[in-house]
Write a structure and sequence with these properties.
23 strands; 4-stranded mixed sheet; 21% helix; Immunoglobulin-like
Length: 389
């Protein structure tokens, strides 16, 4: 392909042809320099037009002369109008295919023709001699050797949905009508072409995921659309403490290490077509868990008591609160009292306070331990003394 000269190249050439001497001042900003620049600009424009015309004389670069090439090649023909002929590159490909391509039984010819139209195809041949070698395997009478399967990518795919009418197909695939027509024109009379449309799987975009070390999580990764046959899912690399179940697409567990990992999620159909999405999985150390101090307090024996303990801060929710230890005396068990209960949900200790023995003759001070455990397994506790009056 010929490249035109630009204005700078022509300016240099014109300056080289000028006479020398004081009368021919050609420095920057002089009248002569401006005049040469004007001439050079026009020369570059003419060169660009002529170069484009010269390059356009060839069908693989034709622009202005493309309609003439199409007229010579007999285009548009019966295969035109399938959506490809609207593109200049596809129109050039049609011209080249009509003028240059010679039909033969080489699959590479069909592959190259489709590629000129911007479509990648696979040609699947049947191994007839091998079938004949196994008794009973070939039931076609030798005809399968003249059959090729052409696998090509599907166009727009429409799927059945809840608003579809009763007679709507479950899936409708837009065919590449012009490609089919072009390949059939190359096809010898004794050959049969069968076209298979490959609907590759598609995965939606995935958001980044973040969590804390030693905290149980469960994610259900999205299902892919499209694809031929059953889909197989995979997630890599492995994250310590986490497990991926392909059948349910569930990724769960408790990550054991602080790390930032780029995850790759894939869906593969039975034809080997793969859809891939990546996302960032970040595991951080959980924030420190703290529990406010619990002040000592006094309460009367055998009187109702309701006390709400302070909430924890930091850590990773949910929190689990507890109050203890239990105190045993005379066959009775006390958590400060045998009739007192503690609610972890409300952090409330309530009931009839017993601060003595079952007979009520002895008073006892009760030491309590108020504790909390967060989702990351962190623990915090505070102690207090209840003085019985």
């Amino acid at each position: 392909m010929v490249q035109p000269l630009d204005q700078a190249a022509y300016s240099e050439q014109v300056h080289g042809l000028l006479p020398t001497g004081r009368a021919w001042a050609t420095g920057v900003g002089t009248r002569m320099a401006r005049l040469v620049a004007a001439f050079s600009s026009e020369l570059a424009r003419v060169d660009t037009s002529l170069t484009a015309l010269l390059n356009g004389a060839l069908p693989d670069h034709a622009t202005d002369l493309l309609p003439d090439w199409e007229r010579v090649a007999g285009l548009p023909d019966s295969c035109s109008g399938g959506g490809l002929a609207d593109d200049v590159l596809q129109r050039r490909a049609a011209v080249i295919e009509k003028i240059v391509t010679k039909a033969n039984l080489n699959p590479a010819t069909f592959v190259a023709t489709a590629r000129r139209y911007g479509v990648d195809i696979d040609v699947i041949e049947f191994d007839q001699p091998r079938a004949e070698a196994v008794q009973g395997l070939d039931t076609s009478g030798g005809r399968w050797r003249y059959v090729w399967w052409i696998k090509l990518p599907a166009g727009k795919v429409r799927r059945f949905h809840v608003l579809s009418t009763v007679n709507t197909p479950l899936r409708t695939i837009q065919r590449s009508a012009e490609i089919e027509c072009r390949l059939r024109k190359l096809n010898p009379a004794h050959m049969l072409l069968l076209f298979i449309y490959d609907v590759a799987p598609v995965l939606p975009a995935l958001p980044d995921i973040s969590g804390y070390r030693n905290v149980n999580v469960e994610y259900t990764l999205p299902e892919a659309a499209g694809g031929n046959g059953a889909l197989t899912y995979a997630l890599s690399p492995d994250v310590p403490g986490m497990t991926f179940t392909p059948a349910s697409r569930v990724w769960d567990g408790a990550p054991t290490a602080v790390a930032d990992t780029e995850m790759t999620y894939t869906a593969t159909d039975e034809d080997g077509d793969v859809a891939t999405r990546t996302f960032e999985h970040s595991v951080a150390a959980p924030p420190a868990l703290t529990l406010p101090a619990v002040a000592d307090f006094r309460h009367r024996h055998l009187e109702n008591l309701t006390k709400v303990f302070p909430a924890a801060t930091g850590g990773v929710e949910p929190y689990t609160y507890s109050l203890g230890p239990a105190v045993s005396h005379g066959g009775h068990t006390y958590a400060g009292c045998r009739e007192m209960t503690f609610s972890s949900a409300t952090r409330t200790w309530s009931g009839t306070y017993w601060g003595g023995d079952p007979t009520g003759t002895t008073r006892r001070n009760v030491n309590i331990v108020y504790s909390v455990v967060d989702a990351a397994g962190q623990r915090a506790s505070q102690t207090a003394t209840v003085t019985t009056t």
